[in-house]
Amino acid sequence: MIRAVIFDLWDTLVDFDPVAGRAFQDRVAERLGRDPDEFAALWLEGRAQRESGTLHDYLLNIGAPEELLDDLVTLRRDSTRSLLRPRCGAVETLEELRTLGRRVGLITVCSEDVPDVWSETPFAGLFDATVFSCSVGLRKPDPRIYRLACAELGVAPDEAMFVGDGANDELAGAERVGMRAVLIHRAGEEPPWDEVRDWQGPRITAIPQVLSLLAE
Ligand SMILES: [Mg+2]
């Protein structure tokens, strides 16, 4: 019996938007007086650090002047707030899962702007547990991040379903701790990640399809 459904965030509950991401990087590069292409490469390189610690530490590490830190974090929060728009049917599905007596969780690899603005998004209040990598210092597919989410939800891993687009090897990571893993990808397209191109487990192309998997 599946008692909890745990979701990934980017390209699962919301669209990851590389154009908006680059626009943000360009604005930061401008504020820092850096070349935009060089800065974009630097930003990409620092992903793991941003996703497991604070933005202040990351920005100091790349040489941002202390007096600009708060402005840069504000820029990042503004960008992220605009990106956290639920995909079609996502909010209704999260609500329905709870109506059906299931616990609802989130495990996302993200920087601290996501938890900073979370309560202002349409997702606020819809989860029984939210695990943000930057807040716990763990990233998928570390088994501890899945176990932490299950513990917060009060379920055993084999009572939980994990739904994600497969980035960070997250689906195999979920299976390794005993969860049931479900791949989500865009209808009519191949999954974008090599690790899941030949995924043999369940697949969905829209969040509401989770509900029919529960009935199986
Ligand atoms: Mg994702």
How would you describe this structure to a colleague?
- This protein is an alpha/beta fold.
- The chain folds into 2 domains: 4-15 and 85-215, HAD superfamily/HAD-like (Rossmann fold), CATH 3.40.50; 18-83.
- 44% of the residues lie in helices and 12% in strands.
- The chain contains 11 helices and 6 strands.
- Strand 2 (103-108), helix 7 and strand 3 form a beta-alpha-beta unit.
- Helix 1 (18-32) crosses helix 2 and helix 1 runs antiparallel to helix 5 (69-83).
- The mean pLDDT is 96.
- Magnesium ion is lined by residues 8, 10-12, 164-165, 167.
So, the CATH homologous superfamily of the largest domain?
Answer: HAD superfamily/HAD-like
Count of domains: 2
Helix content: 40-55%
> How large is the share of residues in beta strands?
5-15%
Q: Could you state the oligomeric state of the chains shown? A: single chain
Strand adjacency order, main sheet: 3-2-1-4-5-6
Rg to the nearest angstrom? 18 Å
| CATH fold category name of the largest domain | Rossmann fold
Instruction: Tell me the span between the first and last alpha carbons.
Output: 10 Å
Instruction: Give me the secondary-structure category.
Output: alpha/beta
The main pleated sheet reads as: 6 strands, parallel
Low-confidence blocks of residues? none
Shape: globular
Query: Ligands in the structure?
Result: magnesium ion
Number of helices: 11
- CATH arch. level architecture of the largest domain: 3-Layer(aba) Sandwich
Average pLDDT confidence is 96
**Overall number of strands:** 6
Order of helices and strands: EHHHHHHEHEHHEHEEH
Q: Identify the CATH class of the largest domain.
A: Alpha Beta
